[in-house]
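Quarterly update from the structural biology core.
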Amino acid sequence: MPGAIRTPLAAILLAGCLAGASRGASPAVYGRLDEVFADFGVRGPAFAQAAVTKSLRREGRSHLFWTVVAGLGRRTIRIEITTNLRPGAAGRLIDERAVVVRALYKPATVDYFGVMSGRAVVPDELRPVVLYPERSLLHSGNPVFILWAQKDFSYAVHDRSEAAYRGLLAFRYCEAQRTLLQVETFEPAAVFDKEAALRDLSQLRCSVVKPHQ
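Predicted structure, tokenized:
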């Protein structure tokens, strides 16, 4: 079920968010994704009609962390929203999360005590494709990952028979709102259309509104 997404990546990223939370978590009731976007001054026509199946807000000392999951046809959309971030902090957070994604596909890691732990190697055809659609001469832009996922929406698929979904993981930072969105989309692997997915993502834009406090 879309509302029951549990991914290793999400668990790692949320751990950092929850570490700074001091006022607990509470559900937020929304019907469609465009209602969520309106709350943060974001426009996303391709995702606007998606029905919200999960919405959880966690308030920290200086930030709001919000997880939203929605469904639109055969597509599932998962969004992590972090508010009150200045550009430098948002950039560092994007870099940290990109490192986490790439680390899922490394064959081995070194733990705190310097012990090497092995990890099954992901075949080349199932590794992420990383794009920079906003690259310019002066700015590389934020990465967009094209990822395979299993039935439980977890990444780092090791066998093509386990690859139930394919989709994007991308970031949108709205400076006027001081808000960062991490957007994940999941579609059945057999019908995934990279160009269409990137086109829909490109429609996710920031409006000019008062920054979220």
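Residues 51 and 64 are 22 Å apart (CA to CA).
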